[in-house]
Design a protein that fits this description.
The structure is a homodimer of 339-residue chains.
Chain A (H helix, E strand, L loop, with lengths): L6 H9 L1 H12 L3 E5 L6 H16 L3 E5 L7 H4 L15 E5 L19 E5 L10 E4 L6 H11 L6 H14 L12 H11 L4 H9 L4 H12 L2 E3 L4 E7 H6 L5 H8 L7 E8 L4 E8 L5 H7 L3 E2 L3 E7 L2 H23 L1
Parallel strand pairs in A: 1-2, 1-3, 3-4, 4-5, 7-8
Antiparallel strand pairs in A: 6-7, 8-9, 9-11, 10-11
Chain lengths: 339, 339
C-alpha cells in the first residue's frame, strides 16, 4: 500500500497520540500479556481480542487470549476454540477490550490486577476501571481502535489479523447497516482492512449464514401475521413460544429488519407470548423521530430511543390493545408537536 | 476536508489523467450540454445524470438532463420529474452515462450527434459509440467515475450533488452487499460522499422502503413453501401468478436475499407459475462455486454464473422435478471435480 492510503489514519493518530504512546510504553515493557474480553462475546469483542492477540505475538509477546464465554450464538461458537478459560499467574499486562464494566469481563475479576490493566473500549458508559483507559465512543467498534493501535505500533498487519478486525468492524456496524452521516469512519477502516487482505464475504458468512429452513418458516409465520394501525405507521406481529418449539428458532431482529422496508412505517412491535407462564415479551423498534423507550418504560421495561423492550403479565389481546393504543397516542402527540 | 482525505483520489486520478483531460477540454468549450441516461434508469444512472447535471450547472453550463424513461420501479419514479423528455437542437455536447450501447439510450438516437458525444460507463460490454469513450469496469458504479471527473474539474461538490452520487454508488453496490475483496473502491468514495454531506439513510429509504404489507404477505407465502434437496444444498420455492394478483406484488430478489442466510445452501431456485399461459419462469441464484447459467441455458435461458433464468412451457410438477434433478447432477459433478 502507498503512503497515500494512510493519510487519514495518520491524521487521526495525531489527535490521540498521547494515549497511544502510554499504551505502547506499557506493551513494550511487558512480555506476558493477557488479552481479555466480555461475557457472551460478540463479533467486535472476538475480532478485537483475536486481532490484538495475534498482533502482539508478531511483536514477540507471549499472549493469553482469555474468554470464559458463554459463547451463546452461532457466530461466537465458531471462535470458541481460539480462547482459553484461564491463564498462568505471572501476567505483566492485562488488556481488556470492548467491556463497558469490570463486571462484564469474562474472567475472574480477582485474577486480574487492575493496576496492570489497559482498557480499550468504544462504549460511552465505560466506567474506566483500568490503570490506563482508552475510551472513545466516536468509533462504531472497538476493532477500529485496535486497528489504530496496531498501526501506531507498526505491526505488520497480515491477512489473518485483517480478517479478524474486519469481522469485528462489520459486526458492530451491522454489515454497513448502522453507517450514519455522523459516524462513518468504519467505512474507511473497512476499505483499508480489505486492502490488507480481509474478505468481507467471509465476515458476511459468519454473520448471516446460520439460518435453517425452520428459521425461515417461523419468520414466514410472523410476517404472515403482520398487521397495522394508524394508517400503517404502526406495524406489529406476534408468535407463541410453543410455536417456536414446534416450528423453529427465530430472532425477532429478522422481523424488524424486514418490516423496516415497508413504506410509511414508523413504529414496529413484536409480541412473544408465553401462554404457560402467562407472560408477554414486547419488543419495540422505531424510526429516528419516535422514542419507543418511553412506551417500554410505561410497561416497566426500558431501552434506547429506537430499540426498547418490556416483559409483562397478562392476556395477549388485552396487552396488545393497550400497547397499540399507547403507541397511537404517542404518534398523535409527536404529530401535534412537530406541526 | 483536509488534503489528506484526497490522497487516494489524487493517486487514482493520476492514472486516468489523459481521458479526464480530454473530457475536460470538451466540457470547457461547450455551453449547452445534454446529459443522457439509459431506458428504465436504475439508481446508478439516475445518480450519475443528476449529479453530473447539477455539477455542470455550477460551472455555468446550460444543462438538459434527458431521460424518456420508462421509470418503472418505485425508486426511479421518485426522480421522474427531474428529467426532461426532449431538448432543443443547438446542443454543443452530449454526455451519455451508464448506457452499455446506443440502443439502450433513453432518447431518440437520431437527435444525438455521436461525433459530439462523450460516453462514461462502467460496463465491460460497452461498445464505445461516442467520440470520446471513458469505459472502465474496475468501478462498481458509473457514479464513482462521475465523482472522479467532478473532482478533476474542481467542482464544488455540494450536499445535493453528494447525495445523488451517493444514491448511485450505493444502488450499484447493493447498499454494500456487492462489496468484494477485488472491488471495494466504492467504499472509499462513499466515505468521501458522506463527508461532503450525503446521507446513507436517505439512499437506504429510496432503495428499500417501498414495500407494503401485501408485499410481505406474498414473501411470507414464498418462504413458507421453502423446500430443499441434496442435503439442503438446493433450496426452492414457488408462487402462482394468480396469487400475486390476489395477495400482492413481490420481487423474487427478496426470496434470494433471505435464503442466502441459510447454512449450507448453494443453489437457490424460484418458480413463477402462470397457469393460464402454461408457462413457468425459473430464476436461479448460486454461490460463487456453482455456475447456474449452465442450467438456465439447458432450459433455453441464460445469464451470469451466479444469477440466471429461463422461461419454459409445461406442467409445474414436471418442470420442477426436471430442474431439481438437473441441479442435483450439476452439484454431483462439481463435487467430483473438486474432490
Amino acid at each position: 500500500m502507498g503512503v497515500e492510503d494512510f493519510e487519514i489514519i495518520n491524521k487521526k493518530i495525531k489527535k490521540i497520540e498521547d494515549i497511544l504512546e502510554k499504551i505502547k510504553k506499557r506493551i513494550v515493557k511487558s512480555n506476558n500479556i493477557a488479552v481479555i474480553g466480555h461475557v457472551n462475546p460478540d463479533g467486535d469483542c472476538i475480532g478485537a481480542q483475536l486481532g490484538l492477540g495475534l498482533a502482539l505475538e508478531t511483536l514477540g509477546k507471549t499472549v493469553y487470549n482469555v474468554n470464559q464465554g458463554p459463547f451463546d450464538d452461532d457466530y461466537a461458537r465458531n471462535f470458541e476454540n481460539n480462547f482459553i478459560k484461564d491463564t498462568q499467574s505471572d501476567i505483566d499486562l492485562y488488556i481488556v477490550v470492548d467491556s463497558a464494566s469490570a463486571a462484564r469481563i469474562s474472567y475472574d475479576q480477582d485474577k486480574i490486577d487492575f493496576n496492570k490493566t489497559i482498557v480499550i473500549d468504544h462504549h460511552l458508559s465505560n466506567n474506566k476501571y483500568g490503570k490506563i483507559n482508552w475510551i472513545d465512543d466516536a468509533y462504531l467498534s472497538t476493532c477500529e481502535m485496535i486497528f489504530l493501535l496496531l498501526f501506531f505500533l507498526k505491526v505488520d498487519i497480515n491477512e489473518t489479523i485483517a480478517q479478524h478486525l474486519l469481522n469485528g468492524v462489520l459486526s458492530d456496524n451491522g454489515y454497513f447497516q448502522h453507517i450514519r452521516k455522523d459516524k462513518f469512519f468504519s467505512l474507511y477502516i473497512v476499505y483499508l482492512l480489505i486492502k490488507y487482505g480481509g474478505d468481507p464475504n467471509v465476515s458476511r458468512n459468519l454473520m448471516f449464514c446460520n439460518n435453517t429452513i425452520q428459521t425461515e418458516k417461523m419468520f414466514a409465520l410472523a410476517l404472515n401475521r403482520l398487521e397495522s394501525r394508524a394508517d400503517g405507521k404502526i406495524l406489529y406481529s406476534y408468535i407463541y413460544d410453543k410455536e417456536k418449539n414446534e416450528i423453529g428458532d427465530f430472532h425477532s431482529g429478522m422481523f424488524f429488519r424486514e418490516t423496516a422496508s415497508i413504506k410509511g412505517a414508523k413504529i414496529f412491535v413484536f409480541f412473544k407470548i408465553d401462554e404457560e407462564k402467562e407472560t408477554i415479551n414486547i419488543s419495540f423498534r422505531s424510526t429516528d423521530d419516535i422514542d419507543v423507550s418511553k412506551a417500554a418504560t410505561l410497561f416497566g421495561g426500558g431501552g434506547h430511543k429506537v430499540a426498547a423492550g418490556a416483559h409483562v403479565r397478562g392476556e395477549f389481546s388485552e396487552v396488545k390493545e393497550k400497547t397499540l393504543k399507547l403507541l397511537e397516542d404517542m404518534l398523535r402527540d409527536t404529530a401535534s408537536i412537530s406541526s
